[in-house]
Amino acid sequence: MKYIVACLLIWCCQVTSGMTPVEDTNAVRDVLDNRALLPVAASYKTYRVSDTATYELQLALDQDNRPLYYCRHIFTPVCYTGECKPVYINLYWDLLGNYIRYDLPAKEVLTKLDHREFKQEDYEKLQEILARPNSLLADLAITDLIVPGTENLTDSVDAHTGATLKTIKNEVISGAVYTCYTLWHMAHGPVTDEIIRITETYINPALLHRFLRSGNYAYQYKALERVMDKSGKITPGFEDDIRALINGKNIFIARHTLQQVHPGFITGVKAQEWLWNTYSRSSYPLQLTVLHKLATVPLSDAMAKHLATAGAAANEEQFRLIIAALQATPRLPVAVMQQLAGQLKSADEGKAAAIHNLLLQRQPVNNTIKTMIYEYEQTLPSTEK
Amino acid sequence: MNMNKRFRQLKSSWLPAMLLCLCTQWLQAQQRIFVETESFAQKGGWVIDQQSFPVIGSSYLMAHGMGRPVKDAVTTVNFPEKGTYRVWVRTKDWAPFPKGPGKFRLLVNDAPVKTVFGESGDDKWKWYDGGEITLPAGPAKIALHDLTGFNGRCDALMFTTGKFTPPDDIATLGALRRELLHLTAAPKEAGHFDLVVVGGGIAGTCAAISASRMGLKVALIQDRPVLGGNNSSEIRVHLKGDIDKNYYPKLGRIVREMDNGDPGNGNPDAQEYGDARKIEIVKAEKNLTLFLNTYVFKAEKEKDRIVAVTGRDIATNQETRFTGTYFSDCTGDGTLGYLAGAAFRMGRESKAETGESLAAEKPDSFTLGTSNLWASLPTDSITTFPATPWALQFSDEYHIDASKADWEWETGFGNFNTITQAEQIRDHNLRAIYGNWSYLKNSKPEKYGKQQLAWVAYIGGKRESRRIIGDHILTQMDIQEGKMYPDGAVTATWTIDLHFPDPVNKKYFEGQEFFAGTKHIRVAPYTIPYRCLYSKNISNLFMAGRNISTTHVAFGSTRVMRTCGMMGEVVGFAAYVANKYHGSPRSVYADHLPELMDLLKN
């Protein structure tokens, strides 16, 4: 009841005083000086969110009416025994409901229980707390966290969370535990599902292209779900975006995309020319993914040659995967077999044995290759021939 | 083919005896000069690493410069005669992904030999041919010249004439080392001690002090230049476990002396961990002799008793033998127990075996991991850090956004053996640290531009390895039911704290996890029975520290250092009682328990 009364009071204040719209940047207090995290909006579209009638959710749009981000002007009471205080704050999310940042309406401040204003480090810590989607706060009831009517952590808080007191203290601001708890649950509450639902209504090929090229991995994964089917086949028209993801800076999404993409995507001379270029400029972990993937497709002659050449300087793991890819391909050109046979003399013992084994499986008829195999075998101890 | 093998073949041939004789003389004329790098006169910025001793049989030098090349390590080698020598360098590429960063050169009289070492792409310790050099007879200046500051390493050098390739096989190489370093002579005798404590971590140090204050003549042997183990400035883990809830308040006094305050984990200020103070405390004990830098690699037994151990200096390779009435394994790894044939366990028991609800479904080799903590400090101006393509790779999607480490930086959850793969575990930790730091420095310059690595541990902070089996094996039920056995001695308070790979870290680095999570299972203060502190089958062997007799689950609570220190204190008292009656650790329990408990009470 007390909560409802407080809400009503705050709402009345809002109505009578007229809340300054957040889109007017002069009217917000950018306490963290991080407004640059948001693109410039041309207009806002308002949605009413079902979790409470008090608040509205605004979708920022660019000049072409394309969605940019969401924001919400919060005014919530934080109540202790006998006392409620209003908290005014603006929260911002990306198009998938991931919390981005907060700021305050002009002239507003955040305070602790004893009415002292937040210091700059408290504002920064609040951003860190709100930006943590896997916070301990997620699974806690407020009564698990603090002694009712106070801002003091309960004696049993570590028992409820299984975490140490030090970890818990890191998740809250001393003197403003209730505020942290309330705001975290607003930033990561049902509104996020609502945001996803609204964004879904905007999804079209143009937005998917934008997501894939955004550099924002959350957007990219979301778009991937839409343009790649369960077998890894890509919706026509998105191939360049997929190649860009694999060639991009984010090793994790590059690896994921390459692992999931249909073998057909890397089959054929042209596709494998691109893939070899990718390999050549990739970091080591992605190189291993490329080599794993190559074992699932027929190799072009050029790719087989590239691999045979690369094997000489490869490390143990790369070499093992190169041999596996060469073994898996249905046909090996004579020139490649000859190239491999040429390495029998110079390769170290392990590599030479693997090449020898591969060549024996292929049963080459070319006399030069056969001679090289024979010469290699003469160097082996009698039991290994 | 090595020379010994060649020689054996000659011997077994039908060649005339005279030819054999000539060959032998020719062999004797060959020069084989063996230089252990850890014995270099000046180490420069290189550090001695003994952690792989159980695997490669030696310490080695490492250029641990956190990405900044370290000063040369320099020594003088005396060449007995003028000649052309082939240079051999025993090294490895520690991060062959595909080529590692640990590059260094060997300088002979300030001139580099032709090969750059440490970038072979092969992570096995091997001898590498450094080409030939021609030298006059007499002294020559030999230097290891680091090129990157990224942990290049060198075990030994050889200078040889004639056709000879040094062996890579560890046993053959071990014999060659001994022969050429003249280690075949009898080791130096350190004397006889009532109690020989092997391992100078918190547990071992407390055991040694406790026994010496009871009047026993004690040797404390530690394989590093500092005491304190995980709590030393080399590892920087803070002390945990309470000492103010003890059933026997007398325990914990020595632990308190060791305690240098709580600087947290991985504090960038080495002084906070009080290395010098710990050594001073030990040196002030009149019955206690401290042997630092000594790795115990050999135990001698008579029936079921250990009679002596031998250690090797990690720098000079001087061997020292210690005889004793009682021994205490405080090595953490259970090294002494292992050498002596004590029954031990490593990994997890099954629920069926122990009846513990927290045990694994099936027994396995899973252990808690090893931490290499690190810290950075702010700088006045922007500093750079190189790209690290050989390290783990990160992106904005996943990286650890932190300016220092805490306990979560941990590798080796059963996918590495914490003893035989200690080097790989440390190296994996380094690849995580350097890869993440490179990402932060180069991709988040606004936050990390003016931040510089101040310290990275090169000694691993190991949590778990062998547990030596005693007359009692402490279990989860003992802990949670608070069973008070008649010999309940050390009061423990830490949660059952069994780490596992952090799920998010596992998602991105499956099989290569380096970041841990945990779930603290709270316990009421409980007591660890004395019977967990001695071996069931080596009759004069005590244990204190993480290698006492517990299940894996119970170890999750007993392993913290204040608790381990109190185990050491109890071992000191028990050794006194055993010595008084010329009995065994077991006889203290069987025949003199009231006297031991009285010592703890009063």
Care to give the gist of this entry?
The complex is a heterodimer of chains A (385) and B (602). Helices cover 48% and strands 12% of the residues of chain A.
General description of the model:
The complex is a heterodimer of chains A (385) and B (602). Chain A is α+β, with helices and mostly antiparallel strands. Chain A has helices spanning 2-17, 120-130, 142-145, 157-161, 165-170, 177-187, 191-200, 205-212, 217-227, 239-247, 251-260, 269-281, 284-294, 301-311, 316-328, 334-342, 349-362, 367-378, and strands spanning 28-29, 43-48, 56-61, 67-80, 83-93, 99-105. The radius of gyration of chain A is 30 Å and the shape is elongated. With 602 residues, chain B is α+β, with helices and mostly antiparallel strands. In chain B, the strands form 9 sheets. In chain B, strands 11, 12, 13, 14, 15, 16 and 29 form a 7-stranded mixed beta sheet that branches. In chain B, strands 1, 2, 3, 5, 8 and 10 form a 6-stranded antiparallel beta sheet that branches. Chain B has a 4-stranded antiparallel beta sheet with strand order 4-9-6-7, with no helix packed on it. Chain B is built from 16 helices and 29 strands. Chain B is globular. Mean pLDDT of chain B is 94; it is low at 1-28. Helices cover 26% and strands 25% of the residues of chain B.
